[in-house]
Amino acid sequence: MDAGGGVGVHYDPRMNELLVDRRDDGVVLLTLNRPDRRNSMTDGMTEQWRRAVGDLKRDGDVRCVVVTGAGSVFCSGGDLSWLADRGAEDVPALRDRMLGFYRTWLSIAELEVPTIAAINGAAVGAGLCFALACDLVYAAEDAKLLVPFTSLGLHPGMAATYLLPRAAGVGVAREMLLTGRTVLGAEAAATGLVTRAFPRESILAEVLGIASATAANAPVATRLTKVALAGGGHADLDAALRWESLAQPVTMATGDLLEGLAAQRERRAPRFGNS
């Protein structure tokens, strides 16, 4: 079972290991597309992910991004087959390799629009960690979530020691990281590790509905709200008030405010633009 780590498997550049579906409502669906390898993070998928996220950063029409896995697995983590040759690299080279791998996948956190993970099946090691880097995380009720790094002789990676405690608290993070215990999606929702859990057969439809509703909100207000909540929110009440006393007037100066008020007055859905 993969747990996260570097990549080194040769891939066919013609293979589409990441599907990108741009929907009419401003939602972009990213699907990890190596079900034959349990959607592990191969060289090819990692490179395609890097390019796709870079494109999304420059796309002003994107309102929300959803990531899921093809088949019955979300992501089994990094492809560890390259570790058989680990003796060929020293620690500094491995460090640079791993840091680049981590930053590529965690770049989803750098998007200014809301990001949502739809964990449709097993999410293992680095696969679970990059999902936790999204703003919202939904899981199938029976999805298996685990971070078995130490059982493979590895220290946790992909910011596991930051993302798990941030999501569910230090106690849950300690148990999962030190014992390798598998948590099902329903329990993960109860502990706060994921936002909510849905039946496996309906999770993608549920998440796309949430994404569509999120994408329909005012884009400037949504992006500023995401900034306000980054890293778990403001350090204290005064910091929140100082930010909000600036950010709220910024949104007051947009056409979206007038549209939102008009829609409320006319009892219709608002039609927000990009400013």
TrEMBL record:
CDD domains: crotonase-like
Reactions listed under catalytic activity: a (3S)-3-hydroxyacyl-CoA = a (2E)-enoyl-CoA + H2O; a 4-saturated-(3S)-3-hydroxyacyl-CoA = a (3E)-enoyl-CoA + H2O
A Gene Ontology biological process term: fatty acid beta-oxidation
GO molecular function, one term: enoyl-CoA hydratase activity
Organism domain of life: Bacteria
InterPro entries the UniProt entry points to: ClpP/crotonase-like_dom_sf (IPR029045), Enoyl-CoA_hyd/isom_CS (IPR018376), Enoyl-CoA_hydra/iso (IPR001753), Enoyl-CoA_hydra_C (IPR014748)
Keywords: Lyase
PROSITE patterns: ENOYL_COA_HYDRATASE
A UniProt-annotated Pfam family: ECH_1
Gene3D superfamilies: 2-enoyl-CoA Hydratase, Chain A, domain 1 (3.90.226.10), Lyase 2-enoyl-coa Hydratase, Chain A, domain 2 (1.10.12.10)
The family this protein is said to belong to: Belongs to the enoyl-CoA hydratase/isomerase family.
Stated name of the protein: Enoyl-CoA hydratase
